[in-house]
Specification:
Helices cover 34% and strands 27% of the residues. The protein is of the alpha/beta class and 226 residues long. The longest helix is centred in the last third of the chain and has 18 residues, at 177-194.
Length: 226
C-alpha cells in the first residue's frame, strides 16, 4: 500500500498558568491509501491534538507531517489549500453551521475552493444521497436533525473537495451504538471503496475491529496496539 501520510517525530507543548502540558511527544506513524488507522486513547491523552496537528488546525513545535511525500508546512496560502482540498474533518460534535441547510453545509467548502454553483449543487446532492440523506433532509437546517443525521452530513462535508485523508475525531462519541456502527461502516467504506486514508481517534475499543493498523495513545506518546 502507498503511504498517504507520514508523521515523523511530532511534538506539541501547550503553555498554561499551571505549567506546560506536553500533549504530543515524539509521535511517528504512517497511514496508507485505502486503509483505516485507529488511535485509541482516553480523554486527555493527546489524540485530538495529534489529529489537529495532522489537519493543520494546530502547528507542531517540531517534527514533520508529509502527505504523499510532501511536507505540509509552508506558507499560509499553502496550508489553507491543504486544509481545504487534501484533508477532511469529521468532528465529535459535528461542527455544522446550524443556520445552514444540510446541502449548504456540504457545499460551503466547495464554494471556498472556487467550484461553480452548478458543480457544488450536483456534487453536494450526490454526496448527501450516498450518506442516506434524502431530498427533504437536504433542505433541513442542521439544528433540526438527529445526531446520526448530523454526523452523516458532516462526513459528506468532509468529502466535499475529494481529499486524500479523512480525519475523524471521536465520530461515534455522541451517538448510540447502532447509529455509531452505521457511521463507522461509512468511514470504512471510504477507505475500501474510495481509497481514502481514514484516521480515527477514539476511546471506543470496538472500533479497533475495523482497523488495518491500531495504536494506543497515553500521555502524548503513541505505541502499537496489541
Amino acid at each position: 500500500m502507498q503511504n498517504i501520510l507520514d508523521v515523523i517525530e511530532l511534538n506539541k507543548t501547550f503553555k498554561g498558568k499551571a505549567g506546560d502540558v506536553e500533549a504530543v511527544k515524539g509521535v511517528s506513524f504512517a497511514a496508507a491509501k485505502g486503509e483505516v488507522t485507529v488511535i485509541l486513547g482516553p480523554s486527555g491523552s493527546g489524540k485530538t491534538t495529534l489529529l489537529y496537528l495532522i489537519g493543520s488546525l494546530e502547528s507542531p513545535d517540531s517534527g514533520e507531517i508529509r502527505v504523499c511525500g510532501e511536507d505540509i508546512s509552508g506558507t499560509s496560502t499553502a496550508l489553507i489549500k491543504y486544509r481545504r482540498e487534501r484533508v477532511g474533518f469529521v468532528f465529535q460534535f459535528f461542527n455544522l453551521v446550524t443556520a445552514l441547510t444540510a446541502l449548504e453545509n456540504v457545499t460551503l467548502p466547495m464554494d471556498l475552493a472556487g467550484l461553480s454553483a452548478s458543480e457544488q449543487h450536483k456534487r453536494g446532492v450526490g454526496l448527501l444521497e450516498r450518506m442516506g440523506i434524502d431530498t427533504r433532509l437536504q433542505r433541513s437546517r442542521a439544528n433540526k436533525m438527529s445526531g446520526g443525521e448530523k454526523q452523516r452530513v458532516a462526513i459528506a462535508r468532509a468529502l466535499a473537495n475529494d481529499p486524500e485523508i479523512i480525519l475523524a475525531d471521536e465520530p461515534t462519541g455522541n451517538l448510540d451504538v447502532a447509529t455509531g456502527k452505521i457511521v463507522v461502516d461509512i468511514l470504512v467504506g471510504l477507505a475500501r471503496e474510495d481509497g481514502k486514508s481514514v484516521l480515527i481517534v477514539t476511546h471506543d475499543e470496538s472500533i479497533l475491529d475495523v482497523a488495518d493498523h491500531a495504536y494506543k495513545m497515553i500521555d502524548g506518546k503513541l505505541t502499537a496496539s496489541g
